[in-house]
Amino acid sequence: MLIADLGDVRLHYRDEGPRDAPAVVFANSLGTDLRLWDKILPYLPGGLRIIRYDKRGHGLSSCPPAPYSMGALIGDAERLMDHLGLRDAVFVGLSIGGMIAQGLAVKRPDLLRAMVLSNTAAKIGTREMWQERIDAVRGGGIEALADAIMERWFSRAFRETVELEAWRNMLIRQPAEGYIGCSAAIAGTDFLTSTSGLTLPTLAIAGSEDGSTPPDLVRETAALIPHSHFEIIRGAGHLPCVEKPREYARLLTAFLAEHGHV
Ligand SMILES: O=C(O)CC1=CCC(=O)O1
């Protein structure tokens, strides 16, 4: 098991592929752990170094008391990449992971060659909405919200498959404190101005059935970044890497190739 001891937090991560290969770092969404990416890995080309991690308060990483700031989450990604000696990586962030990508691109452009903003935005929801969610989790645990979250994460067709229960289990088994901590970070984040100043090569991915960050919201964020490329995966909700792994990997592979990463 790989653990990066960053002092105030210990992050659980996986580091697969040759150490000297082009690096791709994956940052997952609220309520998920690094297994979020399991289904796309078989469809990615060989010869990549693939790093996935559980952000603080999720998976096997440590879970400091809430609230967390977006700055802390960006700092965790930055310190993990420094710890691993990564440079010139492609950073793939989904939802809150995409907010981390935007912040990291502003703070440490030296670490990144390009980024993928998947099912994310410069600002997601309102402070009030996130406070309601935090209050609901404090009151009834993540379970109280789980059915509504499944409707945003997945298309109707996927919700009828046997896999649904496993993803729901992933959600409800995350620490409530970590979920609340990251919700507070999202509530306090508005990257509209800073993301508008980015020039990093960017692929934005949306899911046609995404109930959390609908395609128009993702498109608006992509439009802030000159020459970004926007794609919609049809028939997928908020987690297209789970519902449509082959399509997701195809888009990612083409982007990596375009930027000399494979
Ligand atoms: O709505 C959800 O629960 C999905 C989500 C919003 C931000 C994030 O990271 O996941």
Automatic annotation (TrEMBL):
Signal sequence interval, chain numbering: none
Gene Ontology molecular function terms on file: 3-oxoadipate enol-lactonase activity
Alphabetically ordered keywords of this record: Hydrolase
Segments forming a coiled coil: none
Gene Ontology biological process terms, A to Z: beta-ketoadipate pathway
Gene Ontology, cellular component aspect: membrane
Pfam families assigned: Abhydrolase_6 (PF12697)
Span of domain AB hydrolase-1: 24-250
Full protein name: 3-oxoadipate enol-lactonase
